[in-house]
Amino acid sequence: MKRFVGILLAAAALVALTACGGGNDVSPPVVQHPENKAIWSALGGDSAAPAAVAGVVNAAVTGLLADPVEAPYFAAVTGNTSKSSAAHDTPARLEACLTLQFESLLGGPYTYPGPVKVTGDVDAQPEMCQDMTTAHNDVGVPGCVFDQFMVDLVATFQSKLPAADFAALTSTTNGTYALTSTNSAGIPVGTKFQYSAVPTLFNLRGTITSATPGGPLYLPPTVATSCSS
Amino acid sequence: MLQLAAARSTRIMAGFIAATCVSVAAIGWLHTSHGRQLLAKLGVPCPVDTVDSNVVLSMRNNAISRQRGSIAAPDRPALGLQLDRSTESEVAEQMTRDNVHCDEISRGFRYLRCRGVPAQLLRTNGPPVSEIWFSFKPDRTLMAINLYRRDMTESETRQSWRIALQSLRQALGVPTAMTGDTTLTSLMEKPVAVARVEYAYSDYVATVTASHLPYGGLAVREQYMSATTAH
User: Which of B109, B113, B192 sits opposite A170 (nearest CB)?
Assistant: First the structure.
């Protein structure tokens, strides 16, 4: 027991000393999706890509919040409007976290989830984004709302990015990265994309809509159950 | 003595871990559809069902003010209804009269949602409508119409797209913005593609979006929205 306490104290001292000595160190940026680095470079690299991604996310979030059918799902996470560090938060934090996620997904030197600066935050501390399961597990996003967000997001990407970049992003030529999430309509599961961004995004669907297991079953337009609530 | 204390600590630790696991499993299950049904029966609503209408209205006002244009629309087509004027009861009466079954929904705003509707019953043409949502402001006047057709064949998609665009073009002329291949040719060929036509005015935004994505297949959405900021 005494030996255990001794080891614990020694480890704590080591950690404390490391912390003292490392105060000015800056961790090297981690590229979470190095397979998409070519996309990041095409968007302008570290100097221009962050602004391009932020612009796309801003336009997509604006479209979402302007739509009265989709907006309430984002109002459901805005319980605390005075400080952005609460678990359920503001559109500004949503936008900041989405921007970080896309910066990471598109091959930038970022990792999601991670810390972000939130517009209008009352303190100077960065806020930590939540992982996708935690962020959505009590929002109850139906599959149809997730899909609508994807449509708006793709439309925004398509309108804001140079045509060649968008074509590369959605290319299946010599594809390596597959759609794995189950779907009942549209692009078949197993379709392989050249870059991982698109399949990674769509494969999140099961996580985000886990509150509705299996998601909605899309059926022909005449069937009333074409999208679960 | 020490052994006894260690055994007791192990039991306490094991109990704590077991309790944590059971709690996590229970919380997880409560987020499934079955769990949510149980919570609903117990009177615990889904968060989105109890959204404050003022919060969602403020968010929506802010967003639509960034999306709208600068000049007033010459007309505000909305499937024969009047944005900011037609009331929830008038729309409900019209749907009932036209034999369209709709559900009343409240999620911050109030809605009428109708599914699997023949287009003619909505006074338009083309393939049947998967869903149509009528959204109402807090004063119960019509704020927006969202019309969805999903998982269509290529010809149904082209027909839906053409009818929606023709109708807007007749009323409003040339769109204020277009995105993607509006002939839909590449939409059919590409794995992820969207075509969009938008009319954005200071008091009205109409958007027609055709999409080909992993979920929903070939789909067309029509949005007719008031762009006036409601209070």
Answer: B192
The ipTM (two decimal places) reads 0.78
- Residue B115, token pair as written in the block: 């599914």
For residue B193, list chain A residues with Cβ-Cβ distance below 8 A: 154, 158, 170
Please report, as a single letter, which amino acid is at residue A172. Answer: T
| pLDDT one digit per residue (tens) for chain B, 231 residues | 556 666 677 777 677 666 655 554 554 445 444 555 555 555 555 555 556 788 889 889 999 999 999 999 999 999 999 999 999 999 999 999 999 999 998 888 999 999 888 999 888 889 999 889 999 999 999 999 999 998 888 999 999 999 999 999 999 999 999 999 999 998 888 888 899 999 999 999 999 999 998 777 889 999 999 999 866
**B164 and B67 fall within a common domain:** yes
**DSSP SS3 for A133:** helix
Contact B198, B205 (CB under 8 A): yes
Contact B214 A187 (CB under 8 A): yes
Identify the structural domains of chain A with CATH numbers, from first to last: 34-161 (1.10.490.10)
Question: What are the chain A neighbours of B52 within 8 Å (beta carbons)?
Answer: 75
Pairing of strands B109-117, B129-136: antiparallel
Q: Residue B40 is part of which domain span?
A: 2-44
The answer to whether B216 contacts A172, with C-beta atoms less than 8 Å apart, is no
Q: If you search the block for the tokens 């100077």, which residue do you land on?
A: A124
A88: distance to nearest CA of chain B, Å? 11
Q: Is this structure's pTM higher than 0.80? A: no
Q: Do residue B182 and residue B69 come from a single domain?
A: yes
**Is B109 touching A (CB cutoff 8 A)?**
yes
